[in-house]
């Protein structure tokens, strides 16, 4: 976790940067502290650990929105990184962020788990904000620099930036799933989005399936020639579309999990829960893609049927507040509140609830303590680009204990094959997995966990950044310059 920033962050000189990161969010959010003064806090999402070593090695700059509507913020340094804030107006937050990004693209890209809304004024706002990000990146990039654009909020930036700065190398990485053609085609602006992405030299996806969906759509909708993961444009450029499954700082999480303070806190959590035989855990942004409802139902049915007893088993569900002004997120919050209330009302005893529900966000230390306290981690999204919580849990189990129940529809299931894999739409299947993990013997648990730990150790976040940058060098060699960070211990 980065240190809190001084109240008045040092301003930095606008020198052209060799590496420019463009993401909707900066790694820190500008918030108002308890005394009414502005403060900087870690923003949602784990991109910073991935990008930090590359940024540091190249004296790069990170362009993004600091949350809120403050305008006129100057570039500043935070924890040794140069950050360059872009302001959004209240109308842009509504149209670009809450609207097109999170009520159109987010549900559309997640298998239409919720119904996407299509509004022309949201699209206009998306175009305007993407243009502002592209102009900003164009102004900050040195000649021949690399600009790395992130995620679904900024899919038009690659093309807009290329028009402004044909000399720069452009990479794009999509952190969420890229949907099959059958769903993507609903989007009235489908061609513009595809063309926007094709402005990049390299388009990265979490899984090969996403890359294949994209290439197929480009061939069918835009009419370009393609071969495997390559797209050939009429102007002679080649764009590569491949998978780069993202990871976490495995060593960093393990180190944290081994800290005495974390061990002590994990013990405290277990005691506070009344020392149950098994603790089940869910940690998610409060999002309808995460399958929170389904997993709580599966758990409560096992209690109702007498398979589990609240004296022996408790479900701790942490739901981090997210996108709270978007209608579907409000509805979800009410639904989960009601469900938890009903389950605890029906099955809880005095001092022993069936579900311990926390609507809050916690620092990394507390998360690590929860991961250490939990016997069974339940990750049950209906669709998820990767799901880093699953990897974080595995990284913290340095003694090869603990069980992971993981949805087949999370990108992480592609790598973590030894988890109990479930289909979150199949309630009986999910109940069977919960039951099995609850009764699993230590030998089975450690065999599974050891294999999963081996997998994540061989593909951590540094390896991810490295493989993307290497692929960039291959697609468009940067004249002998390399942005790869030196190996870290
Ligand atoms: C997902 C997205 C990120 C986003 C994060 C938090 O992980 O892929 O782009 O930043 O959620 O959501 P928020 O809307 O708060 O930025």
UniProtKB/TrEMBL annotation:
Pfam families: Glyco_transf_20 (PF00982). Coiled coil: none annotated. SUPFAM superfamilies: UDP-Glycosyltransferase/glycogen phosphorylase (SSF53756). One of its GO terms (molecular function) is alpha,alpha-trehalose-phosphate synthase (UDP-forming) activity. GO terms for biological process: trehalose biosynthetic process. InterPro entries: Glyco_trans_20. Signal peptide: none annotated. PANTHER family: BCDNA.GH08860, TREHALOSE-6-PHOSPHATE SYNTHASE. Belongs to the glycosyltransferase 20 family. This is Trehalose-6-phosphate synthase. It comes from Nocardioides islandensis.
């Amino acid at each position: 976790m980065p240190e809190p920033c001084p109240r008045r962050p040092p301003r930095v000189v606008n020198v052209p940067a060799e590496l420019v990161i463009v993401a909707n969010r900066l790694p820190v959010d500008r918030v108002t502290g308890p005394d009414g003064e502005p403060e900087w806090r870690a923003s949602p999402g784990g991109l910073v650990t991935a990008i930090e070593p590359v940024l540091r090695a190249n004296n790069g700059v990170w362009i993004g929105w600091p949350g809120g509507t403050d305008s006129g913020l100057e570039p500043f340094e935070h924890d040794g990184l140069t950050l360059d804030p872009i302001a959004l107006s209240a109308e842009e937050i509504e149209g670009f962020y809450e609207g097109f990004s999170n009520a159109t693209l987010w549900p559309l890209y997640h298998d239409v788990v919720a119904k996407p809304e299509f509004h022309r004024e949201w699209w206009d706002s998306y175009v305007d904000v993407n243009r502002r990000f592209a102009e900003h990146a164009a102004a900050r990039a040195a000649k021949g620099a690399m600009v790395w654009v992130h995620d679904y909020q900024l899919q038009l930036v690659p093309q807009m930036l290329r028009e402004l700065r044909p000399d720069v190398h452009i990479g794009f990485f999509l952190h969420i799933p890229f949907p099959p053609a059958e769903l993507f085609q609903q989007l009235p602006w489908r061609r513009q989005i595809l063309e926007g992405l094709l402005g990049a030299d390299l388009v990265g996806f979490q899984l090969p399936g996403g890359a294949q969906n994209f290439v197929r759509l480009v061939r069918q909708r835009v009419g370009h020639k393609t071969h495997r993961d390559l797209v050939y444009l009429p102007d002679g450029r080649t764009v590569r579309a491949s998978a780069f499954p993202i990871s976490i700082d495995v060593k960093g999480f393990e180190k944290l999990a081994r800290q005495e303070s974390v061990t002590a806190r994990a013990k405290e959590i277990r005691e506070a829960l009344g020392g149950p035989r098994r603790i089940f855990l869910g940690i998610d942004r409060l999002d309808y893609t995460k399958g929170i409802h389904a997993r709580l139902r599966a758990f409560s049915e096992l209690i109702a049927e007498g398979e589990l007893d609240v004296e022996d088993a408790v479900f701790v569900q942490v739901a981090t507040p997210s996108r709270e002004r978007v209608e579907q997120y409000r509805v979800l919050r009410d639904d989960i509140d009601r469900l938890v209330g009903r389950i605890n009302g029906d099955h809880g005893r005095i001092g022993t609830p069936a579900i311990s529900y926390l609507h809050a966000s916690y620092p990394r230390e507390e998360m690590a303590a929860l991961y250490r306290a939990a016997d069974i981690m339940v990750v049950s999204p209906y669709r998820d680009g990767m799901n880093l919580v699953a990897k974080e849990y595995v990284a913290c189990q340095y003694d090869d204990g603990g069980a992971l129940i993981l949805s087949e529809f999370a990108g992480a299931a592609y790598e973590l094959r030894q988890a109990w894999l479930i289909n979150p739409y199949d309630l009986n299947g999910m109940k069977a997995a919960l039951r099995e993990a609850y009764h699993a013997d230590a030998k089975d648990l450690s065999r599974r966990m050891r294999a999963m730990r081996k997998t994540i150790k061989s593909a951590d976040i540094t390896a991810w950044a490295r493989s993307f940058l290497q692929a960039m060098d291959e697609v468009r060699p940067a004249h002998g310059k390399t942005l790869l960070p030196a190996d870290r211990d």
